[in-house]
Write a structure and sequence with these properties.
UPF0637; 6 helices; UPF0637 protein I586_02436; BirA Bifunctional Protein, domain 2; UPF0637_domain_sf
């Protein structure tokens, strides 16, 4: 059973686009594939649907190496950014598991308003959940009621607004030393986000 190790975090210290991408492909992407295949099977069974795995290839980069890398689970075979999706990814100091709304997905404003109108769906989430409002930056913040409303309002009203919610595993966390427990923790994170995911997807598939 594959899991992220110190070597994966060290990939982001490698200088140069080609050397770093070579290491991402050889060490990180196989872990994305194995883990996401597992999550796709489990979540697909719960939702009675099929998920497709998408692994970021960073093909648009020509000079600068990526500072993070990720994969996504989507019901769309040809892409993922056009709808709410689950992300599994890694920065130099943590692994993240997000429910993501980025790059102006379909019915973004309606989803944001629905989340604002149904904030009770966030209440069962533990205090170890985080928010990210820019998928290109590593800064995240703890989930709390005031910031939640502020960020959802921004998602609704600002064209470049983004919203990601989930958990992270720091590279120093002993959980990563137990691949089975770490994988279970990741899956549980996605499962706890399913009520929000269902609401978002319902709005995106309504027309």
């Amino acid at each position: 059973m594959l899991m992220f190790t110190e070597k994966d975090f060290d990939v982001f210290t490698i200088e140069g686009l080609d050397p770093r991408m070579a290491e991402i492909r050889s060490t990180i992407q196989p872990k994305f594939q194995e883990l996401d295949d597992y999550f796709a099977e489990k979540l697909g069974a719960e939702l009675e649907t099929e998920f497709f795995v998408h692994i970021a290839q960073h093909r648009r980069r020509t000079v600068y190496p990526p500072e993070n890398t990720w994969s996504a689970l989507s019901q769309k075979k040809r892409g993922y950014k056009m709808e709410a999706h689950f992300q599994l990814g890694i920065w130099s100091d943590y692994v993240f598991m997000w429910l993501s709304l980025i790059d102006n997905p379909k019915n973004e404003k309606e989803i944001a308003q629905a989340f604002l109108d149904n904030q009770a769906l966030f209440e069962p989430l533990d205090d170890d959940f985080y928010l990210s409002i820019d998928h290109t930056q590593p800064e995240i913040e703890r989930l709390n009621e005031a910031d939640l409303e502020k960020h959802l309002t921004r998602l609704r009203d600002v064209k470049k607004g983004e919203f990601q919610i989930g958990r992270v595993i720091r590279k120093t966390d002993d959980l990563l030393n137990d691949p089975e427990k770490a994988r279970a923790y990741m899956l549980k994170t996605y499962e706890e986000l399913l009520p929000l995911y269902r609401l978002a997807i319902e709005l995106q598939q309504k027309d």
